Amino acid sequence: MTNFKDFNISEDTLQAVMAMGFEEATPIQAKAIPSGMEGKDLIGQAQTGTGKTTAFGIPLVEKVDTTSGNIQGIILAPTRELAVQVAEELNRIGTKKGIFTLPIYGGQDINRQIKALKKRPQIISATPGRLLDHMKRRTIRLNNIHTVVLDEADEMLNMGFIDEIEEILGAITSEHQTMLFSATMPKKIEALAQKFMNNPELIRTKSKEMTVKNIDQHYIDVPEKQKFDVLSRLLDIQSPELAIVFGRTKKRVDELTEGLKKRGYSAEGIHGDLSQSKRDHVIRLFKEQTIDIMVATDVAARGLDISGVTHVYNFDIPQDPESYVHRIGRTGRAGRKGLSLTLVTPREIGHLRAIEQVTKTKIERKSVPTYTDVIEGNKQSALDQLRESAQQEDNKEYKTMAENLLNDIDSVSLVSAAIKLLTKEPDRTPVHLTSIAPLRAKKSKNQGNRKRSNNRGYKDRNNKDRYNKDRKPRERRYNKDQRNKNKKNWGGKGK
Ligand SMILES: Nc1ncnc2c1ncn2[C@@H]1O[C@H](COP(=O)(O)OP(=O)(O)OP(=O)(O)O)[C@@H](O)[C@H]1O
Ligand SMILES: [Mg+2]
């Protein structure tokens, strides 16, 4: 066990970290903070949700010269939301020292960013494209950089950001420390490390599996055409507090979101074709728990730390094991429990096995929940609801009516009728999704090098806002209490 006091860090930073509620350092923090503070180049790999941000955040903040208003540290992140989140965490760590981290990302008005830059941030947390834009306009200069962090380094390569990254790293001529962090470090990272790092120390936390143990991982073998009904049933039975549903393409995410709304769930979608304001709005609704379900492409697979996500559903099996690891890693963070469920069509079983092999995890098979399972669940919910209500004191005004009724009808018949009335019928509103082809298993060594593909939802162009911003999410058909029960077999999270 390592306490933050054991690191040789300033009182200000120590206090800031205490205020964040951290007591002990996580294993990656215990290893990476001392090396990082020595100024070594390092590659840090640790499972999702284990505190990598603070692992690089503390050494970075500690190195900043507070008497200077120059930009001294750069963090590169693959998505805008992650750049923002990392900046927020760095601002918490640096608050006592008075260190300001500014997020810089595409989709936000560049003039607004130029204005914010006048406040002299010492650290920038950026997506590569927009940072380059500022470098070209000379609104950001990198001549005083002493620390560079690549968060989710492998994903930035996957997304085809290699040219941008090389251009940015090549432009930093001052002596600097470079740190790479991710839960997955495929081999292709080595080339980047060799080119831009100085004898990097490889820091890995010991564990056989690539995924955290506190996520129960399941899959269901189901034909493509039945997937949506199965997802609806799972949502009814498991009644997740907060769930992310991953779909393969932007179109898929749009269709899934509409389908879920049609059936009365409170869901919103997020992908790279939406305007930044819409993306921000959806993330906010989800964080505030105004909506229960966020439907997303892989744009939300990496790094996002939203507390309270209990369930991750892979409506479509992820493209590769790395994507699987990161997607399911949106739950089970900071030691909490989580559940993931992947829908796999019969021809994709080989692909699932490949994921199991690379991640060294066993994904447990579950059978397709039946319509009867849902009804049984709803009956149980109705019963629990009745029981709870009966125990409350505020039913007095109904007592005379009840007594009169009981004079005419026997009590068993009466209670049976009440349960029947309270039992919700599952919503079977027809929903049509465009079919997509199954994914084929591929060897892990051929993975990666994906071009920045339209399907993965990262492109900044075509920012169409397909949703009416003012439209409120529809009320979910079942209230949470009703759906909270009967999840023993399904690992639901009742309150
Ligand atoms: N020492 C600690 N004690 C308790 N909680 C911590 C500690 N360090 C970080 N956390 C919390 O753990 C959560 C996950 O941290 P973080 O987002 O840095 O994980 P990560 O390893 O970067 O995950 P990912 O691979 O998904 O990006 C955050 O909510 C963070 O505040
Ligand atoms: Mg992270």
TrEMBL record:
Residues 440-454, 485-495 have a biased composition (Basic residues). GO terms for molecular function: helicase activity. It holds the Pfam family Helicase_C. It comes from the Bacteria. CDD domains: DEADc, SF2_C_DEAD. Residues 457-484 have a biased composition (Basic and acidic residues). Residues 432-495 are annotated as: Disordered. Belongs to the DEAD box helicase family. This is ATP-dependent RNA helicase CshA. The lineage of its organism: Bacteria, Bacillati, Bacillota, Bacilli, Bacillales. The gene is cshA.
